[in-house]
Design goal:
Elements lengths: L6 H12 L9 E3 L4 H16 L3 E4 L5 E5 L9 E6 L2 E5 L5 H16 L8 E6 L12 H7 L4 H6 L8 H7 L18 E7 L4 H4 L4 E7 L1 E10 L3 E2 L11 H18 L6 E10 L5 E2 L2 E10 L2 H21 L3 E9 L3 E2 L2 H13 L4 E6 L5 H4 L5 E6 L15 H19 L1
Parallel strand pairs: 4-6, 4-7, 7-17, 8-16
Antiparallel strand pairs: 1-5, 2-3, 3-6, 8-15, 8-17, 9-13, 9-14, 10-12, 11-13
Helix pairs in contact: 1-3, 1-12, 3-12, 8-9, 10-12
């Protein structure tokens, strides 16, 4: 099968979408249901209509664009990603999987293919945690992993709930209706930039993901009496920032202690109040991220950190409160989809590398819905979530060719 990818059109579409942003190009900021996010969504629907796709949206804004197959009773094959972007991000993260997925469908259409199974392009709502502090909101709801209590507890920086912002964006239906039924998809494969250096360093055009690391996030709140930096003597202080410093060191030590390169942990958020140079801190909030492809090992590291955090607070005589924000299971990619991706790459003469995704994606939750795998294309210098994030047009086109071939094999 000869597949023609319109690289110029795809590149122009990626560039156009990069300018639909709250920050100047090449920086991209697109937060869920902001005016630019809504504008981007409407533009995408025009592209879907031009490709003859049937479009629907669910109650949280997950968008589905279907190319009907010859067997309406057969469960569809799905692909897709997200277009929301953290502040001052790049133009390829997520977008390559949405616009690349669309171009893969168009390439199959141009080749005269008509799949037996329908092929559905999914644009997931809020893969980034920017608005509600929880990543993969749309795919979590689709997989049914969020309780009503958890959904109701989520608030954006303005104090609005998920229901509030959905109503403001004119989304209809209940959040419970977003959950997918078992068997609704035959398979799911996501195209994404690697966001790491492996493919580029090995001069490898295609990565085939075999597992997605399991993320966990822990919030720790520490409190003390605070006071004037000059008048409270050192023996009388209960400084929560010093307890926080001990905890941050414990995070690193706990991850290193596993002696596994697959265990990573960091303290990516530190908030200190009142935040004045002449005041002893009275409140500190830490948010800690721990990841591993081995869920049990990840949980063991998390337990060590929690014990160390409590001990540090007690040593410093500080108030202590913790909250486990999330602890998601790892995903193992479906062998038959991994094989389909490798076969598609081989048919194009493209070498590929089996690898692990150390970042997590909507695929982590789609793996709880149906058999799932991912395709990676290189990221220059391994950079992502920055304006200088870059993947060359031909590298993206190669990923789209492989995706189209895999979709063709899976859709039958």
């Amino acid at each position: 099968m000869s597949l023609s990818i319109d690289t110029k059109r795809l590149t122009d579409e990626i560039e156009y979408l990069a300018h639909v942003s709250d920050t100047p190009y090449p920086s991209v900021t697109r937060v869920l249901f902001s005016s630019v996010d809504l504008r981007a969504r409407e533009w995408l629907k025009l592209l879907y209509a031009d490709a003859g796709l049937v479009v629907r949206e669910d109650a949280v804004g997950n968008t589905f664009a279907r190319w009907p197959g010859t067997d309406p009773a057969a469960a569809p094959v799905a692909t897709g990603s997200h277009i929301d972007a953290i502040p001052n991000a790049g133009r390829f993260d997520g977008v390559v999987g949405v616009l690349g997925g669309l171009e893969a469908i168009r390439a199959l259409q141009r080749a005269g293919r008509r799949p037996r199974r329908s092929i559905e392009l999914v644009m997931f709502t809020a893969e980034e945690p920017t608005r509600f502090g929880l990543g993969c909101l749309g795919s979590r709801l689709m997989a049914g992993t969020l309780s009503r209590q958890k959904i109701d507890s989520l608030r954006d920086p303005q104090g609005l709930s998920v229901d509030d912002v959905c109503a403001q964006a004119y989304m209809h239906g209940t959040l419970e209706s977003t959950r997918l039924t078992p068997g609704c998809y035959d398979s799911f494969v996501e195209l994404h930039i690697e966001q790491g250096p492996l493919l580029e360093s090995k001069k490898m055009p295609i990565g085939v993901v075999t597992a997605i690391a399991a993320p966990a996030a822990l919030r720790v709140d520490l409190t003390g009496p605070g006071g004037h930096a000059g008048t409270v003597l050192m023996p009388d202080r209960h400084d929560p920032s010093l307890a926080a410093a001990e905890i941050m060191q414990a995070v690193e030590q706990a991850a290193l202690a596993t002696q596994s390169r697959d265990t990573v942990a960091t303290c990516g958020l530190v908030q200190v109040l009142p935040g004045a140079v002449n005041s002893i801190p009275r409140e500190v909030r830490l948010e800690i991220d721990v990841r591993d492809i081995d869920g049990a090992r990840r949980d063991g590291v998390l337990a060590v950190i929690r014990t160390a955090a409590k001990a540090a607070a007690e040593r410093r005589r500080c108030g202590f409160k913790e909250q486990l924000i999330n602890a998601d299971p790892p995903a193992t990619c479906a062998p038959h989809i991994v094989t389909a991706v490798e076969q598609a790459a081989a048919a194009l003469g493209l070498p590929c590398q089996r690898m692990i995704s150390r970042a997590y994606h909507d695929s982590l939750f789609m793996a709880q819905v149906c058999p799932t795998a991912m395709i990676f294309v290189p990221s220059k210098d391994g950079i992502s979530h920055r304006p200088d994030e870059y993947t060359a047009p031909e590298e993206i086109a190669q990923g789209v060719r492989v995706l189209a071939g895999a979709l063709d094999l899976l859709a039958g």
